[in-house]
Amino acid sequence: MSRISGAIHEMQTIEESASRDQWVNRLHPLVKFLVTLFYLVCVVSCGRYDLPRVLGLALYPFVLFELTDLPLGQALCRLRLVLPLVCIVGIFNPLLDRRPGAELLGFTLTLGLLSMLTLMAKGILTVLASYLLVATTPVEGLCAAMRMVHIPRMIVVEFLLIWRYLSLFMNEVQKTTEAYRLRAPGQKGIAMKYWGSLMGSMLLRSIDRAGEVYEAMCLRGFTGDFPSGRFPGAGRRDLVYLAGFGAGILFLRLFPVLVLIGSIVAR
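The structure corresponding to this sequence follows.
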């Protein structure tokens, strides 16, 4: 399987996961969006050296992975291109700040190392929380939730169209690369002198496909906005989820759970 085919397969797998008939998937999209947004704010607002508090907040995605039956290993594999970029953010901090910060198992951790680990943990947790939201909420529900919190219409529609038709563009790229390989057997990659013509060909086909898609959308009643009125209001189960997970996240943010557990064990 080529890289493009693998990317298309992963997108389809995420969409199938979001369409599963599970209790988390059936929750109101606005509730899941607000809980995820609150979690991201709590994670990002932690101090730059507050690694135990950030690690305590990791309990939320791990619990949600268990409740949704989503494999954590597959999630990390699908995010393999994003997570390294997130971890690189603070990679030079240990060299810039060598002041002693904390003791761990007899080793002295510098403030630069603490800030680097904290930034890495924040990035990994925010990416995992966003993945959980996308993997348990169909894109239509996610767009409806964004419109309910008054995110600008243009941003929501652009997000919907990019997500919906990204796989179509990748299919066009796959067809082009396969056609080139059939005409140049045994050659690794695409010769640089053909890059311009191939990109121009894909651009022209994409423009034609976009025109056809837009005409089909207009025939189906598209008016430039995303209709969110077809989603009913939140029920009792949704409010329980919002209150329960919101309170749990707030508790993890206010109290360093790992420090509390360590002090209890030390006694």
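The chain is about 70% helix and 5% strand.
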